Amino acid sequence: MDTARRIQKPSFGQTEINWDKLDKTKFYVVGAGIFTGITVALYPISVVKTRLQVASHDAVEKNAMSVIKGLLKTDGIPGLYKGFGTVVTGAIPTRILFLTALETTKVAALKMIEPFKLSEPTQAALANGVAGMMASFCSQAVFVPVDVVSQRLMVQGYSGHASYTGGLDVVRKVVKSDGIRGLYRGFGLSVLTYSPSSAVWWATYGASQRVIWRLLDDENAAPSEGKIILVQAAGGISAGATASFVTTPLDTIKTRLQVTGHEKRPTTKQVVRSLIADDGWIGLYRGLGPRFFSMSAWGTSMILAYEYLKRVCAKDD
C-alpha cells in the first residue's frame, strides 16, 4: 500500500497547481483571452441547444441539423452567433467570480475533509463538488441576466418568439414589462440547474482524473505533457457526460421560462406539463444531444485551457 501511494502521488502531484502558487493578475488577464476564444468556437452549439428546447410542438426544425440549416439559410453564419456580444461582455466578470470561488472553496474543503482519511478520489470528488457548487452559486448574480438576454436573442423570431434590435433592446423591454427582477427570471431554476451541474461536473472530473492516474501510474519518471493532457481530457469528457444527463431536464424548463414573453408567462408546473403533453417524459430531455456535446466539448476545452493556464501562471519558487 505504501509503495502504491509513493507511485501514485508523484504523477498526479506534478499536474496539480494550488491557488496560492498562481500569479493572480496573469491568471485573470491571460484567462480572459483563452476563455473568450473557446466561447467563440463553441457558442453555436448553445444556440442550437436553446432553439431545440424552446421549439413548439409543430416546429419544422426537429433536430440539431435542421436548426443549423435553418439558421444558415435565414441569417448565414451570424445566425449561429445570435446573442454572442452579450455573452462575451458578461463572461469576463462571471468567469473571474467562478474561478476565484472555485479555487478558494476547493482549498478550504480539502482542509475540512482531510481528518476523515478518505481515499484520494473520494476526497477529490467531495472537495471539487463543493467547490463547483459554490462557484456556480456565486456567479449566478452576473450569469442569470446575461443568460436571459442572450437566450432571447438566440430564439428571436423563432417559433413565435419576439424580435429585438440587440441586447440593450432586450434589457429595456424586459425591465419595462417585469422590472429588474425580469432579468432574473428563472434565477431559482438556474441555481438548481447550474449549481448541481457544476458540482457533478467538478466532482466527476476530480475523481475520474485520480482514478485514471491510479490505473496508468508506473515507476517511471514524471508523466509527459501529452499524457497529462490525455488524462485531463478524459476527465473532462466523463464529467460532461455525467453532468449533462443529470441536469438537462432542469435546463430545458429554465430555458423555456426565461425566453417566454411577459404576456404569456407560464409557471414551472405549466412548462413541465406542456413538455410532457407534447413529447412525453422524453420532452424534458430536449436538446440533450447538443447539451451533452456542448458540456463535453466546452468542459474538455475549458479544463485543458484552465490547467494549461495554471501551469503558465504558476509562480516560480
UniProtKB/TrEMBL annotation:
Record protein name field: Solute carrier family 25, member 44
GO cellular component annotations of the record: membrane
Keyword flag Transmembrane helix: yes
UniProt key word Transmembrane helix: yes
Solcar repeats: 24-108, 123-211, 227-312
Keywords: Membrane, Transmembrane, Transmembrane helix, Transport
InterPro entries registered for this protein in UniProt: MCP_transmembrane
Pfam families (alphabetical): Mito_carr
Transmembrane segments: 27-45
Signal peptide (residue range): none
Protein family (similarity comment): Belongs to the mitochondrial carrier (TC 2.A.29) family.
